[in-house]
Write a sequence for this structure.
């Protein structure tokens, strides 16, 4: 049974959902989503793992600060959760923005055992497709800000997130309910991020996961990440878009379970 809890961090409540027992998996959602993003995958993992799905500050059931948080601050929250729960050596699984932040935390030396980066934003300058990047153009950004919490706009943003699966409602409501200041600042920060200088410093075994039909991110930066990470494996899922944990939850969970247990990941299409 899922348990919903909070920790206090920098004067704010950070919410997380926990289920299962065993080695810990810390699950980090992406932009405009919440811990609910992981619930389908957690059904396939909670018999063997302690699954902890965090809501970033400004998202889900966590507090709304009313001002930007910043990707570095989100990364600090990972350390706060690990300390609060007395966890060392967890497998940290991050999707999209969550993967970007997880990589930042690992490069900063946080006590992470293994790393799973699912469709992470590696480099904003050439990582987003044109449709997504157009929202961050300086001349468009001021128009986006007042619309970002409106349902039609949230639906438009989410429209290319999956391949065959219908538009996930959790993305629409997640963006509508998130703190607008945090949401907009995180989007701009992702458009500027460049993880490539940090990746060689990540010593944890790292699994890169992507869908072959991802319409949000371009493949080039992920290929560069595979080259730069010292200890990495890449798995691609066929007929899958930007959200493998939602689109192919059983296959995704199998890959994560194998990797977290120290075995080579299988179930998608390994590249090596």
């Amino acid at each position: 049974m899922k348990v919903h809890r909070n920790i206090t961090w920098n004067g704010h409540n950070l919410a997380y959902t926990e289920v299962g027992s065993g080695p810990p998996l810390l699950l980090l959602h992406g932009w405009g989503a919440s811990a609910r993003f992981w619930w389908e995958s957690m059904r396939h993992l909670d018999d063997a793992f302690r699954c902890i799905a965090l809501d970033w500050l400004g998202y889900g059931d966590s507090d709304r600060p009313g001002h930007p948080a910043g990707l570095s601050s989100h990364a600090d929250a990972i350390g706060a959760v690990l300390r609060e729960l007395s966890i060392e050596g967890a497998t940290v699984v991050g999707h999209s923005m969550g993967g970007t932040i997880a990589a930042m935390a690992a490069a900063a030396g946080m006590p992470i055992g293994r790393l799973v980066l699912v469709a992470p934003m590696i480099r904003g300058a050439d990582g987003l497709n044109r449709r997504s990047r157009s929202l961050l153009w300086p001349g468009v950004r001021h128009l986006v800000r007042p619309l970002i919490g409106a349902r039609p706009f949230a639906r438009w943003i989410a429209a290319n997130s999956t391949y065959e699966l219908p538009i996930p409602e959790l993305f629409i409501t997640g963006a509508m309910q998130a703190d607008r200041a945090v949401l907009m600042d995180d989007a701009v920060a992702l458009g500027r991020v460049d993880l490539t200088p940090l990746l060689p410093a990540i010593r944890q075994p790292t699994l890169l996961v992507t869908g072959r039909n991802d319409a949000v991110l371009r493949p080039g930066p992920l290929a560069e990440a595979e080259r730069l990470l010292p200890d990495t494996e890449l798995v691609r899922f066929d007929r899958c878009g930007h959200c493998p944990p939602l689109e192919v939850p059983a296959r995704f969970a199998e890959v994560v379970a194998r990797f977290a247990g120290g075995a080579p990941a299988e179930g998608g299409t390994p590249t090596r």
Remarks:
- Residues 71-84 form the longest helix (14 residues).
